């Protein structure tokens, strides 16, 4: 089992923790990671965009001028796509963009993403992360001590509410509960930061 240093909120090492090989030392399946990211981005799309085709815009019932003899190009309707106020060619319509990923593939993609963060030494474990009050400056001081600029912070428990709200307005930082982590966020942020309680929860859920 791989060992990772456990840090406190000041950045000092206070111990070590062994990581579960079934989660943090799997074979990285890049095609599944790619599939999970594509599905995540697709599932975020609302699919509500809409525009009118030439059949739906108002007007244009009659031919604007006769077919021949005017010297102008033939036109069948003033609502054709080349006219101002005309319809849209291949107009977008509301649709469902969602992509389904099988549960086994989704779990393996998540494990692959976590393993890649461990392999790249971009995985930090904190003994605890608690703030007495909601204060952005206090959270910024913790991040400065840990030398974090762009990180995903995963927490567990009610005490993490102050942390989540304190980090909300800090650019480059995202907080998440264990049950909300996904492959896209793990790869998007440079460093994966997790508390010991959250790490235990991840190993319970995904082992």
UniProtKB/TrEMBL annotation:
Gene3D superfamilies: 3.40.1370.10
BP GO terms, sorted: translation
One Pfam family from the record: Ribosomal_L4
Annotated region (Disordered), positions in chain: 44-72
Gene Ontology molecular functions: rRNA binding; structural constituent of ribosome
Taxonomy, superkingdom: Bacteria
GO cellular component, one term: ribonucleoprotein complex
Residue ranges, compositional bias (Basic residues): 60-71
SUPFAM superfamilies membership: Ribosomal protein L4
Key words, A-Z: Ribonucleoprotein, Ribosomal protein, RNA-binding, rRNA-binding
Function: One of the primary rRNA binding proteins, this protein initially binds near the 5'-end of the 23S rRNA. It is important during the early stages of 50S assembly. It makes multiple contacts with different domains of the 23S rRNA in the assembled 50S subunit and ribosome.
Protein family per UniProt: Belongs to the universal ribosomal protein uL4 family.
Subunit structure: Part of the 50S ribosomal subunit.
Protein name, entry field: Large ribosomal subunit protein uL4
Organism: Cellulosilyticum lentocellum (strain ATCC 49066 / DSM 5427 / NCIMB 11756 / RHM5)
């Amino acid at each position: 089992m791989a060992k990772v240093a456990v840090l406190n909120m000041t950045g000092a090492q206070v111990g070590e923790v062994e990581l579960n090989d079934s989660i943090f030392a799997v074979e990285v399946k890049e095609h599944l990671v790619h599939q999970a990211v594509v599905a995540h981005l697709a599932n975020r799309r609302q699919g509500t965009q809409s525009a009118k085709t030439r059949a739906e815009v108002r007007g244009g019932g009659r031919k604007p001028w006769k077919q021949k003899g005017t010297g102008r190009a033939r036109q069948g309707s003033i609502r054709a796509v080349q006219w101002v106020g005309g319809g849209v060619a291949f107009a977008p319509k509301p649709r469902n963009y969602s992509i389904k990923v099988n549960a086994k593939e989704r779990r393996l993609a998540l494990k692959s993403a976590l393993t890649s963060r461990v392999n790249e030494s971009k995985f930090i474990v904190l003994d605890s992360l608690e703030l007495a009050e909601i204060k952005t400056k206090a959270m910024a001081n913790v991040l400065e001590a840990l030398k974090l600029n762009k990180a995903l912070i995963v927490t567990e428990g009610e005490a993490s509410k102050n942390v989540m709200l304190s980090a909300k307005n800090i650019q480059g930082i995202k907080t998440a509960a264990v049950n909300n982590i996904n492959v896209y966020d793990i790869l998007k942020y440079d460093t994966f930061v997790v508390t010991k309680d959250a790490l235990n929860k991840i190993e319970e859920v995904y082992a």
